[in-house]
Write a structure and sequence with these properties.
The protein is of the alpha+beta class. It is built from three helices and ten strands; from the N terminus they run H-E-H-E-E-E-E-E-E-E-E-E-H. It folds into two domains: 67 residues; 159 residues, Sandwich (Jelly Rolls). It has a five-stranded antiparallel β-sheet. It has a five-stranded antiparallel β-sheet with strand order 2-3-10-5-8.
């Protein structure tokens, strides 16, 4: 009877150990802006030399870091631009994300430079303005997907966050791609996705996570059965020896 109690306790402990693993794997989060569709683009406003640079934003499925698509930044520079007018870009205001301002907030983005555009621009700049102008640059010399981030000081009640791409030479075409823009509030909590996350991408992620949980549970069960069998064998040998 005591042996049965021991085995039952082992099984119960194993089941308890399996449940938290499955629950932990359930979590899944998305960037504030995924750009899987165009719904999030309308929240951004243009500024600066947009007419001179021909700046356009569009969703492109050909190149993305994750999900179904990314934000494609297109420019059409057909004439010389005065140095004072080379900067054009977009920004989002704090109120559109339900915030009073961006004090203490952080913005992070993944950026991919179009190789053909590198000779016409040298950087991608995140910026924030309002009380204080601050920037964080990513050099166009970086290949592949790279992350750039900017944190607004806690005492700077800036109301805008955005990005700009200074263009110096004649160029027509895609300049860069932007994906997975995450904006963290002053407490370090990521602001929820604005609605441009495709359900198709979510179902893929969830199904992969479910398969991983199933395999993990199966492996744990096999391990538990092996341990129980080993204990049973040892106990039976001891019983034979002392009976």
């Amino acid at each position: 009877m005591n042996i049965k109690k021991i085995i039952s306790a082992i099984i119960a402990s194993a089941v308890v150990a399996v449940v938290p693993v499955a629950a932990f794997a359930e979590g899944y989060t998305n960037a504030t802006f995924c750009f899987d569709n165009e719904s999030g683009i309308s929240m951004w406003e243009t500024y600066g030399a947009v007419a001179e640079t021909g700046l356009e934003l569009k969703v492109d499925t050909a190149l993305r870091e994750t999900g179904n698509a990314a934000l494609c930044v297109y420019e059409d520079v057909k004439s010389e631009i005065d140095p004072a007018s080379q900067h054009g870009g977009v920004f989002i205001s704090a109120e559109k994300l339900g915030l009073e301002n961006f004090a203490g907030c952080t913005i992070q983005a993944s950026v991919y430079f179009e190789p053909e555009a590198v000779g016409s621009t040298n950087s991608f700049s995140l910026y924030s303005d309002g009380v204080l102008w601050i920037t964080s640059e990513l050099s166009a010399e970086n290949s592949g997907w790279n992350k750039v981030s900017l944190t607004v000081p806690g005492n700077a009640a800036n109301t805008n966050l955005g990005f700009t791409i200074p263009t110096y030479n004649f160029y027509t075409g895609n300049v860069c791609y932007v994906d997975n823009v995450v904006i963290y509030d002053s407490n370090g909590t990521a602001i929820a996705n604005v609605g441009d996350y495709a359900e198709a991408a979510e179902s893929i992620e969830v199904s992969v996570g479910t398969l991983g949980r199933i395999l993990l549970v199966v492996l744990l069960i096999v391990l538990i059965v092996g341990i129980i069998a080993g204990i049973g064998f040892v106990v039976s040998m001891l019983l034979k020896k002392f009976t």
